[in-house]
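Sequence only, no structure available. Ideas?
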Amino acid sequence: MNVRHIAIMATIIVTVGCRPTPPIQDQASENVVSFRYHAYDSVPTLTAAALDKAMRHCARFGKFANYKGASVSEWTTEEVHTFACEDTKIDDGAVIAGQSRRPDVLIGGSTFVNVYQ
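Reply:
I predicted one. C-alpha cells follow.
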C-alpha cells in the first residue's frame, strides 16, 4: 500500500466513524417522546431519523411532534432529543437554531443547551 491508499482509507474511516448512531427511543407517552443516540459535534445534532420517528410516534395519537431541545453529555457523545406531542404544529427552527450556539448552562454533569433565550 502506498501513502495515497492509506490517506484514502483514513479519510473513509474518519468520515464513516463520525456519523450519528441510530436513535433509540428513550421514553415515550401520548404527550412526549425522546430519543437517545451518539453524535459527534460540540452542539446537539438533530438527525432526520430522530425527527421522523418522533413524527410517527405523535401521529399515532393524532398529534404533531414539536421539537423541544436536547441534553448533551459533557463526557460522552451521547445526546437525548425531546419532542412534545401537541395538537398544533410549531416551527422547530427557533429551537434548532438556538442549539447551534455553544452550551451555556451546566446541570448535574450534563450540558443543557438553553434554547429559550
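Residues 23 and 49 are 7 Å apart (CA to CA).
Hope that gets you unstuck.
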